[in-house]
Amino acid sequence: MGGDLAGNDRLALRERRCSVDQAGRDGKRALTLYSTPAMTAAHLLYERFGFRRAEARDMIVESGVQLRSFVLVLKPEEVVR
Domain with 72 in it: what CATH number? Predict the structure, then answer.
């Protein structure tokens, strides 16, 4: 496969913009992504897009898989901590 990292980044950025724009139109205060600890490349991409680690929201699902939380605040004045 190899893949074009720059092309993949552009696609991810476009999808992120669409998701963030839609969430804003829907009145959402924040977006949360969950990812497994092994997805370190994805974590870097999330942070590049403005998401921040939110360890307090991490979870372990029924199957025993650990999920790490990343949050992008859309309306800081309305976010309940």
Answer: 3.40.630.30
Is this model's pTM higher than 0.85 or not? no
List % helix, strand, coil for the chain (3-state, nearest 5): 45, 20, 35
Does the pLDDT value for residue 5 go beyond 60?
A: no
Query: Residue 67 is encoded by which pair of tokens?
Result: 């999920």
Domain that holds residue 59: 5-78
At residue 40, what are phi and psi to the nearest 5 degrees? Answer: -65, -35
Nearest-10 Cα torsion for 39, 42, 19, 10: -140
The domain tally of the chain equals: 1
